[in-house]
Amino acid sequence: MGERGVLVEGVRAYGLIAGMWLRAGMTYRASFAATLVGNLVMTGLDFVAILLMFSQVDSLGGWSLPEVALLYGLSVTSFGIADLVLGSMDVLGARMRDGSFDTLLVRPAPVLAQVGADRFAPRRLGRIVQGAVVLGWALVSVDVDWSVPKVLLVPVMVVSGAAIFSAVFVAGAAFQIFAQDAAEVQNAFTYGGTTLLQYPPSVFGKDLVRGATFLVPLAFVNWVPVCHLLGRPYPVGLPPWVSFASPLVAVACCVPAGLAWRAALRAYRSTGS
């Protein structure tokens, strides 16, 4: 089976497994609605903290509330999509410890699709909805001289950001296989990364900004393109054209993440139990 056939089979397997968990989750509709609303409220507390900060100050690192809300909405929405699709990757270590990961290896379906769709949780839609609401308000409130390229840049940021976070999820899962768990390391770059991006780069040290730009390029989720939208210079002096490089960065992240996943599967030696 060629690469295209594997991809099609993976998407098909993912859809079947995710659909099974979706039907299971919708069995008790009241419980589903309650968990969805609860997830929305819990994720919204992060933005409440930002509102509380702005009740005491006029700007944060030189950024106004609508500008910070723009960063927040892009980060949370992009991460929410990746978390919905691949959020189960962070429990891979537990699967390896109890031996259930081995059962996935013998099934006639791509392992990545099985792990990603495992325990597919539609309650995670709450994070996406909450982030999209804040993003919509920010786009209306922020002071931007809109043009066609800038308007098109917004959905490009969301899609590219989701792809970048997805690549981090997959790379983190590969690391868990090599390290025999270490889910906390993955969470530092996924959940920690989205929290980092909710605040302006100007409030962080130059070394941290460089690391988030060149080492793990999370900055291309929102920091770099938003600086272009707002007419702000980027802290590490990147050329203007990189503001539109998020799709290229997403591809540059996904390819090595996929290769790392393949290498990790080849290196896996089971639990021995």
TrEMBL record:
Taxonomic superkingdom: Bacteria
Transmembrane segments: 36-57, 69-87, 128-146, 152-175, 208-226, 238-261
Keywords: Membrane, Transmembrane, Transmembrane helix
Organism annotation: Streptomyces virens
Pfam families (UniProt xref): ABC2_membrane_6
The protein's name: ABC transporter permease
Record InterPro entries: ABC-2_transporter-like
PANTHER family (UniProt xref): INTEGRAL MEMBRANE TRANSPORT PROTEIN, SLR0610 PROTEIN-RELATED
